[in-house]
Records
---
Amino acid sequence: MARFLVTSALPYANGPIHFGHVAGAYLPADVFVRWARMAGHAVLYVCGTDEYGVAITLKAEQAGVGYREYVDRWHAEIKALFDRFGIRFDVWSGTARCPYHTQLAQQFFATLLARGLVFEQVEEQWFSEAAQRFLPDRYLQGRCPECGFEKARGDECPQCGAWIDARKLIEPISLVDGSRPVLKATRHWHLDLPQILQQGLGDWYARKKAAGDWKPNVDGYVQAMLADLKSRPITRDLPWGVPLPEGVTDDLGKVLYVWFDAPIGYVSATAEWCARVHNDPERWRDWWQDPEVRLVHFIGKDNIAFHVVVFPAMLLGQADSWEGREFVLPTAVPANEFYNLQGRKFNTSAGWHLDNDDFFSKYEADVARFHLMLSAPETADSEFTWQEFQNTNNALLADKIGNLMSRVLKFAISRCGGVVPATTGAPVAHPSLADADLAFERVGKHFEHYELRKAAQALVAGAAALNVYFDERAPWKLAKSEAAEDRAALGECVERALAYLELLSRRIAPACPEVALRMRKMLGAAADPGQAGIWGEEAAGHPPARLKSGMTLGEPGILFGKIEDAQIAAEVAALEERAQASGVL
């Protein structure tokens, strides 16, 4: 069995997250982790909030609250949405709250500096004489040097989309105090990515590419980046962040750039988990410095550069340090594209989002999980539409799975005394059961290869095949006969249907954990509690074993309620009204 170290991109503690974020980086990881554990693998799932950076300091100052108070609010709100989706981390931390983060981030920096992979550079940066502070790009507003837009930011123009060198911003104004800043020399440190590329990063990436480990969208992005790889600054002038190690500089206010310290948050969160579970934070090395561990980063495409180039470069740059133990490098980075909403990008400030409180007061998390899987943006941008959500709930989950469960159990209760009927135990050959075997075998393979969309499709295909089997065998017709062979055929049909439903309850568990539990409760003793949470031999394509006759079944219930057309129309209207009320769109 393998050991998986799984991470999801640290969400930025600067505002709410939405369904698009969940679909891109968090639900895929949670489903994979649940499958891996059921399959017997050892897994550690690490996440937390990214709590430093310019955007946070600017928004906190504008809101008139302390930096820690500001990130604490979003840390809790983000976790609340994950809880609603049933997304469970082994450790949920944050870069400003983890007691081991500062030390580890400083040690990463110090090692790179000692190895000559970090260099100093004096450059000009805008400085507010009124506030006596340097102004990072997000603290500036001025005229775009490309299109002339009057309210361009210091890093990007919202009008033309151009990336801006803040020093070229025309007539900039400080967003801190409204003053006209001046250019002033300041010293910063840069990560020498071109040198690390030559020292091993390029060879590592090429080996992974030759092995077919990169998704096409990841490879295309990285190839373009590597063709023109440049050094990147890794420090900032800010009052909030990880300070540089002692002895590096006497300059006040120098902190590590957020993109540098954030991925180290995966390591520090692991140390926090080890301290809690093993009472030894140093056991983080068992996960990050064990060559047998498979490191998997679940991210959106906007984080590809950091997880496939920058963070691996930082890890490679630690060679010959840390008592001679090298860090593991990513085994896979199943980056997803963007997930949109009803034809537009999610935009919380513009009202174009799903209201979380309202949504979860009406709809089950497992239905949302399954729909996000079916519409996952794995190879191209995709979107959530209310109409397709209704179709997933009604036509796929309610009709194909919920209805089958109800039909089989009610029939078994009425015609078989509410127990598993006796059978001869002979193998059953039926084309639809063979189709179900193939579909359920594929589910695990798709989970293993991070293919959520295909896994969801295979689950639907397996359930559809079971419906065909039950319809074609028509046990209600056999029940009208007193012939021994018909009574035996009835028992065989019901037993097989129950056994495959038990198998389906395990196959669907990574996607719909609460539904799987309800299915197993309805199956009663036919779903042996000792087997709960185990993927099972059927993953190799074998039909489920015969159930023991006489086992008591549970009470049938409704797995999925139907969603009416009028309700969907109301949801679309409410979305449009929110957008109009915002005045942004």
---
Amino acid sequence: MPSIHPFHIPVMGLAFTIDSPLKVAKFGISSVVSLVDDQLLEDMRRIHCKKNQVPYTAIEEHEEDFKARRTTAYLNLLKHLVDQQVSRLKTEPFDGESDICRYFELLPASHPYFLLYKKLEEIPVEERSAIEQELRDFVQPGSIDVNIMTKVDKLNEGKEGEMLPREFSDALSALRGFAQSDVNGSVVFSAGLNPSLYSYASQFQDFYLNDRGELPKQIILKVSDFRSALIQGKFLAKKGLWVSEFRIESGLNCGGHAFATDGFLAGPILQEFKDKRLELTETLFASCQQALVGMGKAELPVGIAPKITYQGGLGTSEEAKFLMHYYGLDGTGWGSPFLLVPEATSVDDDTLDRIIKAKESDFYLSAASPLGVPFNNLRTSSGEDQRKNRIAKDRPGSPCYKKFLVSNTEFTDKPICTASRQYQHLQVKANKEGSLPAAKLQAILEKDCLCEGLGAAALLSEGEMPRRNLSAVTICPGPNLTYFKQLYSLIEMVGHIYGKVKLPIDPNRPHVFVKELQLYIKYVQNELHASRNSLHPKNITYFKKFFDNLHGGIAYYRSLWEENQLGNFSMFEKCSATLDLLHSRFSSMIPEEAPI
């Protein structure tokens, strides 16, 4: 079925969209659930079973394949409850206050079924039955989609300490749990290509066409540029796996982990997808069909094409409409603003208050992630308070219970997490012995436990205390959230997305393209500062490419602004001047003998 709404709510953290389908799917809105934390999935299943009087039997960690089974059980519960919600909604009266009325009021003003719903106001009650029945027949839920961060894929041990086969790793277990569930949704693969994970997907029939010509489960790739989309899409296509959607995400103007490009900006990236969309479709279609024929499986229908969507920093309906129209997008993703919509996401009251009170400088790109990837963070979060308090008490680091991000073997035979108390204690000890530069120690102590911090909010918002009383919350909003300064209802936020209402956001908020450019200039400025003592040939090549791409992006935007009159261009000109100064500084840092 086609999407009811041309926007979706992307995955946010581990907890913030963990039960969003229960809040928004009945209104036709699709959202994405993180599958990283099986403990959190199990806790939320227990909570929602109790709230909805559904029998609950715990799946314990000592049981066989518990990670996948927990995932399947939670997703099946979501589907069961959403199906119940939709069934009830379809029986409600069109009285202007019921959920079925909200369903249609949430649609875009130009949607044919919004217009049909509005016609009810002009028709006598005794003559409404035919239209009301047509409206009821139209109702369908939003998709229950899931996210697997491909790089979070720890190998696991069995009961006796033996290493389990590859299919019991974290990511493959999560995929198996989704594939074996009753959910007819999509899995979003983010953070790049994982060959083992992608190959494993080919073992599940639900990723191939069924007897009705449908894909019961679909694949979405979150990508940063066209090259990544083509490489990953071809890898999957050669296994007969079709990519139903490419979600282009800004490298820096997004929440969570930030995968910065080498200075490639969103506008030029979207332009390349626009120019090469047919090439991408035809290449993947041919490769996928060839694989399906060789496997003896049902072939794809002629004319099938992947959707192309964008997410990262959108803040106004005008921006969304322009991107949809100019680049021919099929949809957009709106993440961080929905953190301020309690009807859509799970954020505890204390964290909501901290977000609303935060200044623009409190939203920053940190080194908090044990993955070594830049991470969008909030300086005033309770998670940051906890991290600093631990350092002040001379006990830096976190107890490491969940171990989703263990990877370091610098001091130990078994991998440990760089945010763990064990690792940071060993690093502090090394510093006291004089073998560790102070700057490096500071970067190490900035690492924080994302496993606990990103999962606590959902439990707290349900009035429950997380396991072991680890209640500090790490929040990972995109920089765009600083411009939204109050709580909003679902109908207000969706109305804002469609231009039916205008939320009171900061009037000084820059255009989505300008904001991303500002973030990239700040990013390269910090990178130059880190390399201030010396530039190696590899660094010189990197920075030259980075500056060339940023200058190219500014030239592209100048042309775009002249053609489309998107608004005041003065911020771009200011960015351009700043970039010129940085480029000049970079040139002065290059040794005379170094080739450019």
---
Amino acid sequence: MADSNFTDFEKKYKDRIKKEFENYKNKSEISTQSRQYQEFKKQYMPRNLSLYEKLCNISEKIFKITPDPKEAKEQQEYIDICHLDVTPSGVKSFSFLGPLVFILIVAILSLAGPMILDPGADTKSGMFFIIFSVVFGLVMIIPLGKLPEFIANNWRISVSNQMVLSIFYIVTYMRHTSNLEHAIDFAAEHLPPPLSLDLKKVIWNVETQKYSSIKESLDMYLESWKKWNIEYVESMHLIESSLYENSESRRLDSLEKSLRLMLDETYEKMLHYAHNLQSPLTMLNMLGIVLPILGLVILPLVVSFMEEVKWYHLMALYNLALPIGVYYLGRVVLSIRPTGYGETDISEVNPKMKKYRNVLFKVGNSELSMNPFYFSFAVFAIMFLIGISPILLHYLLPPGFDIVIYGSGSETGMRFIDNYQVPEGKFYFLGYRDVDGDIIGPFGLGAAILSLLIPLSFGFSIGLYYKLRSRNVMKIRDESKKLEKEFAAALFQLGNRIGDGLPVEIAFSKVAEVTSGTTSGRFFELVSLNITKLGMNVEAAIFDPKHGALAYYPSNLIESSMKVLVQSSKKGPLVASQAIINVSEYIKQIHRVDERLKDLMADTISSLNSQISFLTPSIAGIVIGITSMITTILGNLKDQMAALGSNTDTGSLGGAGIGGSLSNLDFFGLGIPTFYFQVIVGLYVVQIIYIMTIIVNGIKNGADPLGERHLLGQNLITSTTLYCIISLVVMLIFNIVAGMVLGNLVTVTGTT
């Protein structure tokens, strides 16, 4: 009886303890892991995706549209790839509700704005923007409906760029420790987002008991990549199969085959991509750059004979519709890019490197930093205010005030021009004109020259921001890349020294002596000094946050290699030696394929760079010079003909007939002022340079935010400056020619 009571008592409390332990485990592990994953996702998911998620969810509540099952299945696949918290219904609803709201807002502003500001104003311009918004909104329904697909493609490109390295990290770890879960965790630790997010989620799904094993969780994740990257799936399956091999040699062969398969398939896919890239890039170049810019040549004639066409009509076309179309076509080109190699923004991965994204100043022994946005904004504000000064002066100065330079060049004067009457054959600064009571302008050469500062303010300030934002980090990356380039040979020597029986501490100093004067030599020398001078062990000499060698050479590739060395050295010098030699061989293979991929893309990248750096700004600059001359000639030709007609009116009867016909000529107007025309073209050049730089970086490097910012800083500054210089020179030359033509016409008119 006592034994029975004791057994019941024991069972009762065992069940209670087990229940409490399970509750504690659920709270401490499951909820914690889920919270950690949400925090990780919140940290690394772009903010614009969070805004897009909110808009889709709100649209689904307001105006729910359910897609058909086939479309919903495809959308859900894209949503799962990029970890969006939306539904296919929300995406479909936003694709219709967003354009509808845009059309309503533009319609209200187009109708109510002119009525409030000027009740007697013409409503034709308002109707143009209403029609434009309707067409633009209807066209945007398709891209907005496919936005999850584009986001998923961008995510896929970012992940694909890291897949080769992920196989490298997993294989490197599993050579000395055959544990798949630890190998995936090792890869997730050294890879940047977004692939690290996916791999951590694979582990978290096991820890939260969503899947029973790491293999099951990994296989479910790989299902999403069968459509896009079958070689990655096959490489992972080879790694999994190595766990079941009986002999060590077969296990290692399986691991090496997985990395070799990934490298070979990557090269083959990129080869086909490079061959198929010429046609879409040619179409993009013609439709987005060549034809729009060459079409600008005839626009001055068109707007001169069609006075209904205003400068803001051209701005809606060239600065809104065309850039969006070019960007869309560029993203389509990038969406088919296969697996490649991507670089890492170390300032995003390593929090200690974030300060290098700012402008650093040395003040005594302290270091101050300033966000480059403030400096760039100050440059923008100064240039922009000077650029719009012709408009400001028109409203600030007395009516009719202008600075006139006489055509002969021998006399220069500053005077008031009564009733905005422009002297024939003269150069003027503002050049506002009175046409039937409407003051139109500025048509002056001085205003056109100052207008160059408006696109320069955008291009130069944005480029300066990106350049200052990336300059310090790029220097660190370049040093790390130099080290990575030499690191394979240095690692091979280190592995041989350890294999000869030397302790790891002494092996570092020996390799530092042999590689003295190189970047890798300085790295090994720094490790050796930390060991001998500071008394650190090998792990601290490499990984110490303040004095470790990696603090001066931040590189995930080098860090992972050194961690393999530290962990394998615990199993003996021979294991460490073999592990390091194998790592060096893997790095050589990756570098060899990387160089072959660069050769494949060299012609395409060179062609695009020439478009960005020279051809586009040069063509646009020449077009602006021609436009300025045509506008000047056409703007004065009507006045000259009227003057010729008034002179012939006092002559013979036949002359009176000719004069009457000339004085009544009204088949062309003043056209668009060069001031506004140049601003439209200049901003379009800045936009095209920005978009094409993103495309070039995407084709060359895949997802590389740091490299993109660095290229934007270079191209925006140099190309925009070149455009402004060419525009200024050609504009001055052609206006001198126009002045000579008009001066001769004045002479002919006077003699007549």
---
Amino acid sequence: MTRIFVGIAAALWAGTALASGPVAADNPVAAAISERQLEDEIIYFVLPDRFANGDPRNDRGGLTGGAFDHGFDPTHKGFYHGGDLKGLTAKLDYIQGMGVTAIWFAPIFKNKPVQGKPGEESAGYHGYWVTDFTSVDPHFGTNAEFKAFVDAAHARGMKVYMDIITNHTADVIDYAEGESTGYRYRSKGEYPFSRRGGPDGAPINSGFAGDDNADPANWAKLTDPTFAYSPVVREAEKSVKVPAWLNDVTLYHNRGNSHWIGESSVYGDFSGLDDLATEHPRVVAGMIDIFGQWIDDHGIDGFRIDTAKHVNPQFWQAFVPAMLKRAEAKGIRHFHIFGEIAYEEPTATLAAQVMAESRLPYALDMGFAKAAQMVASGKAPPRLMAEFLQQDAIYPGGAATALGLPTFLGNHDFGRFSMFLRQMSGSDDEATLLARVKLGHAMMFLLRGVPTVYYGDEQGFISDGNDQLAREDMFPSTVAAYNDNNLIGSDATTAENNFDTAHPLYRLIGELAKARSTSPALRRGLSSVRAFEEAVPGLLAIERHDPATGQRVLAVFNTGESPLSRTIEVSYRATGVAPLLGQCPAAPAAPGSVTVTLPPFGYAACILETDD
């Protein structure tokens, strides 16, 4: 007896993914948006500046002068290119056509337009150099246009995730000691809070009992910030930060640049950016107020937290519950919070550790990205992914927590998935590279976690490196370093508009999204590793089981260049097999086993029918 599963996600696909315009306000899908669980989402991550230019009048952010004043130079990979909220809103149909249910975008808060030493200047097009946490950057539009974007997304049944920063602000504070120090990090041991400029300096901050004492009365005694460096701010920038409390230099660590290890990882300036003292109760309360207000005013559905591991755990222990409470009061039952815990190893260890210490509910799945890159490229055998998935048990809450981790293949910091595959496989053959890229996307959609597509991947973008080199324009680009790349799966370049809904990767993502959205096991199913090649590319087989519905799906992948046929173990409850995606066997080979046949770089998702 075959069971058929049709849930909210299936209705979402049918009702909105192929829609040509907004869903009516009384549409049951739109009404149920806050009821959708985190595991039901399919995320699209975009940098607004690089996506679509809906209003060229805001390209310079209302500023005058040259590019070093307003930050706009579409020929330079490190400056503003003109994308904005109006452009993003106008492209919602394109985004939703892939089956996307949630949009996460880089920060849209007002940034310092340009910063950097002479000859090293770049602009805040990416959004991570915030001066005003209460306003949309004029390069992107206005607060009203942001509200219009959120409303338009919600009308389509799509959620909106903001990228937020609490660790630092733009680089406004300098040190009187100057560049001669190299802005070397000065530790708490060498430069205690109680002495100016080090242990031999004059006594300061009498009675301050250390930064692990959260009592506001204790922090009121930390009045002199010159314990390590002597912070100074140019007259023109003394009031540039909003809210005004952010202009108080005693609310920053002021210890010099982080070297990303130990104490400096939390207390050091992030590449010169002003590092907030997130232990300070004023900072905790201020950040809760700032981001709670964005929930109250706009009804957003989640936060991606930048540089989460560079903030002390106690901050998150206060911040996260406060945000969930504000969301609940707004009627948002499943508010998605996930932190950036950056590393480049195929392991869950660091993410699980930081989540446990900080009580962060979820983290971007960095380990999955690395495992997918290595396995889909053939650099590592499927065993690597199998063993990575078996680490799900170490997350706080166990394997069920892993279902809500946003998984991705590449991003704006590390580089694009296709670039990693080309580098790791050592091959430039376009057909093979396209096949490997498709395989990686199948892994992201069919394995556990919340699939997160990096904008442009659906158009075959292939970066030359990380950071600025992986932030190409979707609209016609004038950046030479972008335009010399041949895109995967088409004859296009980034010198053209790239919103082709017939692109093979765009269509593939839509097919994978439809399979996932109609299958509770692919969205919420726990994983059982059924088979994998140990030392060479080849088979990976994972059975997904959703206890609530009973549905079981077998996801199989061939990471090798040759076809394969294998007979593998499955649940003994399986009495039949039905295809969900790709080539599936007609029936079990025997009780508790099926025979799968896959082409080179092939994949399939097969429903294991049961009688219960």
